[in-house]
Amino acid sequence: MPFLFEDYCLDADRRELKRGSELIAIGPKVFDLLLYLVQNREQVVTRDDLLEAVWGGRIVSESTLTSHINAVRKAIGDTGKEQRLIRTVARKGIRFVGKIAEEVPADASVTHSRIPRERLEPILTVPDSPSIAVLPFRNLSGDVERDYFADGVVEDIITALSRIRWLFVIARNSSFTYKGRTVDEKQVGRELGVRYVVEGSVRQSENRIRITGQLVDAASGTHLWAERFEGTLDDIFELQDQIATSIVGAIASQIERAEIERARRKPTGSLSAYDNYLRAMPHLHRGTREAINEALPLFYKAMQLDPEFASAHAMAAWCHFWRKINGWMTDRPQEITEGVRLARLAVELGKDDAVALTRGGHALAHLAGEVDGGIALIDKALVLNPNLAPAWFLGGFLRTLRGDPDAAIDFFTRAMRFSPLDPEMFRMRAGVALSHLLAGRFDAASSWAEQSFGEAPTFLAVVAIIAASHALAGRTEQARTAVEHLRKLDPTFRISSLDGWIPIRRPEHLARFATGLRQAGLPE
Fold first, then answer.
1. What is the CATH number of domain 387-524?
2. Do the first three CATH levels of 269-315+328-378 and 387-524 match, i.e. the same topology?
3. Residue 36: CB partners within 8 Å, gap ≥ 6?
4. CA-to-CA distance for 13 and 35, rounded, in angstroms?
5. Is 474 left (phi over 0), alpha (psi -120 to 50) or beta?
6. Residue 96: CB partners within 8 Å, gap ≥ 6?
7. Which of 85, 174, 212, 299 has an alpha carbon within 20 to 30 A of 339's alpha carbon?
8. CATH topology for the 2-120 domain
C-alpha cells in the first residue's frame, strides 16, 4: 500500500521511496525505519520501539540510531532543525507528523501499534520478464568432500542461463544461502522475488554421474518439468548444457535454438583446473586475510593445469587487488606487477568471458590506474551477461571513482536486486557508502558503511569511510573511534596514502575524503 506525503511516495510492497518520478536510493534499515514511523504516525515512537521493530530487539549504539534517523530525514528533505515531517519529542521519542494520503481497503482494520515482524523482511517484486533461481543441488554421493563438485554443476547452469538477456537470473551467491536447508519453493520465490525455482541432486559413483533436475512454479508450487541425466565425468559439461537447455525450453518454448545454443558455454575444458577454481571461490567471497591466502594458491593451481583458464587469472588478479586495498601486501611493487600481469592475461584470454572481464577489468583499474579501461571491460561483460551481479557492483565502484557517484548507486541497486542474499553484500554496501561520501551525503554514507562493517570489520576501506563520514558530519567521537580501529588494521596508513590507495579521479572528491580522515585524526 503506497503512502503519499508532500511529493513523496513510500511504497511498502515495492520497498521504494520516490519523489515524483525519481527513485531515491536508501538503505534497507533506513527504509524500514521510515516505514515504521509512517505506519505508526498516530503515536510517539520510543527508542525501544525502534530497536524492537527495525533491529529485531538487537542493541545498537546511539550513534547508529541517530545516523539512521538523520538518513531518514535526509531522504525526505527534512532536517533535525526544521523537523517538518519527523518531529523529536523531548525525552520521549520521535513521531512522523506529515500529512499522509493512502488508499485503504473498505474493510481495513485499525492500524496496529507495531509492524508485524514479517513486514520488515525484504519484499521483492517479481520482474515482468521470466525470473529464476537455481538452488544448490543435493549431493547424494555420501562424500562431503564432493560437495564442491555438485556446487560447480549448479554454478555452470546459472552461468549458462544468465547469458540469456531476457531471463532474470538470481546470482549464485544468493541461491547458495539455501544450501543444506529443506526449502519450500513458495517461500524461496517470495524471498528472492522469482517466478520459477530449479532444484535437483547429483549422485556420483566412481566415474559415473547422475544429475536430476526439476523446475517448479514458485507461486503455486506446481512442478513444471523434471529430467534425469546420466553419463561419465568425461562429458559432465555436456550434461550441464542439456540441463540448461531443457530448463530454458520449459520456461519459454518459443525461444529460438540459436539463443539456447548461446547458453551453452563452459568456463574450461579441464575438470582438474575447474576443481581448484571451485575450491578457491568460497575463500574469495569471505574476503579475510586468511581466506585470500587460501584462495590464491588454488587459483594458481588452476592456471597451471589450464593456462588458458581466463576466470582463474582474473580471480587471482582480484585477490591481489583485495590484498592491496586492505594493506596486506608484503612486497607491494612485486604484487602489484603480478596482479596487473594476471589481469591483462585474463582479459586477453577471456574476451567472451564476462567473469574474467569483470574481475580483470576491476583489478586493472585499481592496480594499474586504468579506471576508464576497467569500466569499458565491465560494460562489455554486462553485454555478455546482463545478470552478473559482480559486474554491476564492481562497475558501480569504478563509476564512483571516476566521479559519478549517483550513477554508481544505480549500479549497486541493480547488483543487490540480482543477488539479494549475496555473501559479497558487504562490498556492495561499502560501495554505496563511498558513493554517498564522495557526493557529500555523510549521514547516508555512515549508515551504509556501518552495515558493511557489521559483516566485515577488517575491511579497511569501510572503516575509512566510517571515520571520514562521521568527521564530516560533526560526530567527532565516533570518527576518532573509527580512526583508532583503522590504525590497528593498518598502522602505516596515512593521509598521504590515500592518493595511491584507491584511484579517485576528481580532485574535489579526493580532497573531501582526505579532509574527513584528517578531521577524524589520521596523521598526515
1. 1.25.40.10
2. yes
3. 45, 49, 50, 53, 54, 115
4. 11
5. left
6. 37, 38, 40, 41, 85, 86
7. 174
8. Arc Repressor Mutant, subunit A (1.10.10)
| Distance separating alpha carbons of residues 150 and 36, to the nearest angstrom | 42
Q: Contact at 8 Å (CB) between 286 and 423?
A: yes
Task: Write the pLDDT tens digit of every residue in 473-516.
Answer: 999 999 999 999 999 999 999 999 888 899 999 999 999 999 99
DSSP string, 45-102: BPHHHHHHHHSTT----HHHHHHHHHHHHHHTT--TTT-SSEEEETTTEEEE-S--EE
Residue 9 has a CB neighbour count (10 Å cut-off) of 18
Per residue in 222-245, pLDDT (tens digit) is 777 777 777 776 766 666 666 655
Taking the domains of the chain in order of start, what are their residue ranges? 2-120, 131-266, 269-315+328-378, 387-524
Q: What is the length of the chain?
A: 524
Rounded Cα–Cα distance for residues 120 and 35 (Å): 9
Q: Tell which residue, 242, 318, 329, has the closest CA to residue 285.
A: 318
Architecture in CATH of 131-266: 3-Layer(aba) Sandwich (3.40)
> CA–CA separation, 316 vs 343, rounded Å?
8
| Four-way CATH pick for 269-315+328-378: 1.10.530.10, 1.25.40.10, 3.30.310.50, 2.60.40.1080 | 1.25.40.10
